[in-house]
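ARCHIVE CARD
SHELF: 3
SLOT: left
DATA:
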Amino acid sequence: MGNAWKLLKTAPPTAWFGMIVIVIYLTVALLAPVIAPFSETQIVGSEYEPWSAEFLLGTDNLGRDMFTRLIYGAKNTVGIALATTILAFLLGGFFGLLASTLGGWIDQILSRIVDVLMAIPQLIFALLILTIVGTSVTSLILVIAVLDSTRVFRLARAVSMNIVVMDFVEVARLRGEGLWWLIRKEILPNALPPLIAEFGLRFCFVFLFIAALSFLGLGIQPPNADWGSMVKDNATLITFGDITPLLPACAIALLTVAVNFVVDWMLHKASGLKE
């Protein structure tokens, strides 16, 4: 705990800003039912009512409270993006470390499969698969996680390729240590810093990807609140000078910038540079 606090004290203002924003978003996502003044799908007034004391950000195209939808959007969008990123790292990281450790034909087969998946544009591939299998939350998480795990695989394999040839790994092999022990004790701890930084970047990409899919109608489905679909459903207000549809877009942009600030600091620390 003390070492973590010493590390945090060396963080620049941008990293502190990013961490504070991330904590606020996570708090809002976890406490959404407590913070929100209305339920997620409750119709509370007429459509497109203006900002008022009762409806802080007005109402949407169906008469639902926009402030409530914005709060629940954090719970749904951030929660699903985080679950998807974790699954993508479990898949891509495991197979990337496995391919670099075993090498040979296993490495070749896994690498060629990943090359084929990465050759297809991700958004088009996701739209095609989701159109076939449906747009439930489970299928959304699985499809995006599998597609995004290819990027994690490439990074994990590239980083661990430089580690498996080092002397301490060879010594562990000669001692008779098993495959799982090598990955868990020798390779993963040394590959962790770039993978942690990549986790933040992948989260941003997944977060934006889910918002884009929702905007196109194949992401998080109604009546669940989602920032991407909120922009699409209420875009007509922009023509009347109402900035309400831009608020979900600003929420997406703010979280993306905050995560990137933290990732930049982590990469700087991992590089060993002093300035």
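SLOT: right
DATA:
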Amino acid sequence: MSLNKKVAPKNNRFQALSNEEMEEIKQAFDLFDTNNTGKINPSELKQAMQSLGFNDRNPTIFSMICDLDTPQAAKNGGITLEVFVDAINEKLGDKESIEGVRRIFQLFTSDPNAEAIDASDLHRIARELGETMTKEELNDMLKRASASGNSLTFNEFYDIMTKKTFP
């Protein structure tokens, strides 16, 4: 599926997304746009996400979906792709800016004021994303990624997130 100008207009909100990320978002949007209107019904999307268990497995994404279920969306006949992308960008932010990376970092921590991501945070995120990594594998990730070996500071997280290539 290729993106056309109608789907990805030249707009600042889309500049933070790679073509691959935009394609993934478009595919997710298309799954719920079953009648190909270019809009998805927010209450149906929320119900679909609940039926898939997202309210328990990934409360962040479920919360984002609930935020889209507004009277304005209902008045407009549903959620457009642009609104959907805006919501994702607002939650995740620009992964190139320090503010955007900080928002992503805060999604990983159980406490918004936490200074580091620890093994319990990684385990929770892995579980929410449906990953089946063992505690030993997650601890090994922390050992390789952090100076302390047991938690990942924001600066370490930022360095990892903004690297263009990995050795």
